[in-house]
Amino acid sequence: MTEKSYTTTSAFPALTPGKLRIYSMRFCPYAERTRLVLEHKNIEHETVNIDLKQKPSWFWDRNPNGTVPILEKDDKVLYESLVCSDYIDEVYPNNKLTPSDPYRSARDRLIVELFSKAVTLFYKIAYGKDVPKDAIKGFHDALDPVEKALAERGTPFFGGGSVQMIDFSIWPHVERFDAMAQLVKEARVTADRYPKLTKWIENMGKVPAVQKCRWDTPAHVHFIETAKAGKPDFDVGL
C-alpha cells in the first residue's frame, strides 16, 4: 500500500479481512498519538494516509468530522485520537499503557487537559502569520503547570518509570516545538525554565515507538511553511 496521500480522486483501498487499518496524515500530531500506541504494542496494521485538503468521499463516510485518526477493522470504525488509543489499549492488553488505578488514570487526563492550553497557543505561534507577543507569553505560562506536574511526580516519564498513555498523548505536539522555535525563536522551550520537561523530551527520544514515528525538525518546518502558504505538502520526501 502506498505511503502517498489519498485524495478526492483516489479509489477506496479494499480492506483485508481481520486486519486493522489506521487512516492517518503523516504530519498530524493527533494521528501520531494512535500510531505511537500501535507501534509500542507491536500491533500489525496498515496505514492509509489522507490528503486533508482533498478528502475522498469514502473518508467522510467513516468520520463525519473529516479528521484523523480513524481506526477500521472489518465492520468496526472509530475516530478521535484518545478514543482510538484507549480502545487499542483495551483490545490489545500487552504492554498496557493505561493505569489500573482509576484515580491515577483520571489525574493523567487532567494533565493532558492542562497541556491542551499550550497546544492551542502552539498553533497560533507556529501557523500564525503575525504572532502576538501575548501568545508567546501565554504559551510559556501554559507549560508552567505541566512542568510542575512532572516535577511533583518525580519520575522520568509522566506515567512513571516507563512510558505510558499520558506520555504518548502529550509527545506529538512537543515533537513539533523545535520546529516552532525555528520559526519563532522566542517560543523556544529551554532547560532553565523547564528542566523536568526538557529531560522528559530527552527520555522520550529514546523510546522505540517515538523513534519509529517521529519526523525531524526540518521536515516539520517544511510542512508548517507549506501549510501556512495554503499548500500543505502531505507527501514530503515521497
From TrEMBL:
| Recorded superkingdom | Eukaryota
Chain's role: Exhibits glutathione-dependent thiol transferase activity. Has high dehydroascorbate reductase activity and may contribute to the recycling of ascorbic acid. Participates in the biotransformation of inorganic arsenic and reduces monomethylarsonic acid (MMA).
Q: Name one Pfam family in it.
A: GST_N_3
GO-annotated biological processes = glutathione metabolic process
What PANTHER family does this protein's entry cite? GLUTATHIONE S-TRANSFERASE OMEGA (PTHR43968:SF6), PTHR43968
Q: What is this protein called?
A: Glutathione S-transferase omega
Its Gene Ontology molecular function terms? glutathione dehydrogenase (ascorbate) activity; glutathione transferase activity; methylarsonate reductase activity
SUPFAM superfamilies reported in the protein's UniProt record: GST C-terminal domain-like, Thioredoxin-like
* Residues of the GST N-terminal domain: 18-96
* Lineage, uppermost ranks: Eukaryota, Metazoa, Spiralia, Lophotrochozoa, Mollusca
Annotated catalysed reactions: RX + glutathione = an S-substituted glutathione + a halide anion + H(+); L-dehydroascorbate + 2 glutathione = glutathione disulfide + L-ascorbate; methylarsonate + 2 glutathione + H(+) = methylarsonous acid + glutathione disulfide + H2O
Q: Which residues fall in a coiled-coil region?
A: none
Query: The GST C-terminal domain covers which part of the protein?
Result: 101-234
Q: What is its EC number?
A: 1.20.4.2, 1.8.5.1, 2.5.1.18
Name the UniProt key words of this record, in alphabetical order: Oxidoreductase, Transferase
What GO cellular component entries does it have?
Answer: cytoplasm
Family note: Belongs to the GST superfamily. Omega family.
Which organism was this protein described from? Haliotis madaka (Giant abalone)
Gene3D superfamilies named among the record's database cross-references: 1.20.1050.10, Glutaredoxin
